[in-house]
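COMPLEX REQUEST
Ligand: NAP
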Amino acid sequence: MTDRPDLPLLVTGATGVLGREVLRHARATGRPVRALTRRTAPPADADTHWYTGDFTAGTGLDPAFTGADAVIHCASDPRHPKNDLPAFRHLLEAARRAGVRHVVNISIVGVDRIPLAYYRIKRQGEELLAASGLGWTNLRATQFPQLLDGMLRPLGRLPVLPMPSRTPVQPVDPAEVAARLVALALGDPVGHAPDLAGPETRPATDLAAAWLRARGSRRPVLPVHLPGRAGRLLREGALTSPGHADGTRTWDDYLAARH
Ligand SMILES: NC(=O)c1ccc[n+]([C@@H]2O[C@H](COP(=O)([O-])OP(=O)(O)OC[C@H]3O[C@@H](n4cnc5c(N)ncnc54)[C@H](OP(=O)(O)O)[C@@H]3O)[C@@H](O)[C@H]2O)c1
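STATUS: Structure written out below.
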């Protein structure tokens, strides 16, 4: 099925860190844009048609999906990972009912390797998508600086800041991920797209030290050896994708703008 420029793009999770950026890039295409949130009072916004729906409950989805050309799925609930699987099934059912041409999903580099509950669920979502019979594209990205920042904040109040030792990370700007997602959505479904990772790979301890400096803190970073299989995989670089360092905005760029 070919791209229908007159039909809307639907962005899910459109109030989130990534979704907000996807919305911005989707609007810039000049296409009609729809956005989905659980909020009963969505943001007031003349350029976007907002819908209220909940993927976990499976409610309110049909009005948003009906007539959409492509869906860029950024909705996720990492605090309740178990919700994401029924939510994903509801996404696919709604897309099938509506005859959506292309479902574009955001996933995470390392979901196929790292034994964390949220990552396992993301991987299962990828498998459901691949078996759905829908036109689909899946993009795996590395961590957003906002996520790392959010993780560092509570740790930064401790006298020393504990961080996993010898663990490389490769943060990528969500605006760059958003641009890639929108470009993918406008094209034909490609299945698994090449990863998108940030421009530099640095030890997590190094990022934490830069974060402390940016906040004017002299507290030290305490390297902590993470035990077990997950710790070993993290040290081996399971969160990184060095062959796909296509992002341009660095951690230091983020810190300079944020702090
Ligand atoms: N953060 C990272 O470093 C990173 C890296 C790579 C990939 N990703 C992936 O990128 C996606 C977005 O991440 P993010 O950091 O932007 O997350 P986020 O800021 O937490 O945004 C997620 C959005 O999902 C919506 N949502 C949650 N549960 C929902 C439900 N049951 N029904 C409908 N909407 C629901 C929420 O919107 P409302 O509250 O308005 O409903 C929320 O704004 C996720 O799939 C994540 O796995 C994230």
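REMARKS: The domain at 9-142+172-192 is CATH 3.40.50.720 (Rossmann fold). The pocket of NAP is lined by residues 13, 15-19, 37-39, 54-56, 74-77, 87, 106, 108, 122, 141, 143-144, 147 (CB under 6 Å).
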